[in-house]
Amino acid sequence: MSLRDRYIERLPTWLRNRYVITFLLFAAWLLFFDANNLIDRIRDIRTYNEMERDREYYTNRIEQERRMLMELEGGDDHDLEKFAREQYRMKRPDEDLFIVVTPEEKRRIERLR
Questions:
Q1: Same structural domain for residues 59 and 98?
Q2: How far is residue 30's CA from residue 38's CA, in Å, rounded to a whole number?
Q3: CA–CA separation, 92 vs 54, rounded Å?
Q4: Are 58 and 105 found together in one domain?
Q5: CA 51 and chain centroid, separation
Q6: Based on the domain organization, do 60 and 78 belong to the same domain?
Q7: According to the model, what pLDDT value does residue 8 have?
Q8: 3-class SS string, the chain
Q9: Per residue in 20-70, pLDDT tens?
Q10: What is this structure's pTM?
Q11: What is the pLDDT of residue 1?
């Protein structure tokens, strides 16, 4: 009995079946080597979910910006001055400016970096 035959005899009978071997090779091909393999599919699904979250965030952000634009276009000078002070941190020459950063703003700034 040759060395190869001894190793084959040690295998369980279901592993010696040529259909099982064919199935295992086919599964390995699909999981790792195919153009649509499982690893790439999982990465694509994660990327898709991340893009969906980004889309939701930017949709909400666009809606907020539209509301702010409508307020500025329809408002008076007091509203325009309030916007300039809050968004662009403008001040009068005789004033001091104190900036308070909320935790939400801090997370948003960190995400943009």
A1: yes
A2: 7
A3: 37
A4: yes
A5: 5
A6: yes
A7: 74
A8: CCHHHHHHHHCCHHHCCHHHHHHHHHHHHHHHHCCCCHHHHHHHHHHHHHHHHHHHHHHHHHHHHHHHHHHHHHCCHHHHHHHHHHHHCCCCCCCCCCCCCCHHHHHHHHHHC
A9: 889 999 988 888 888 888 888 899 999 999 999 999 999 999 999 999 888
A10: 0.52
A11: 62
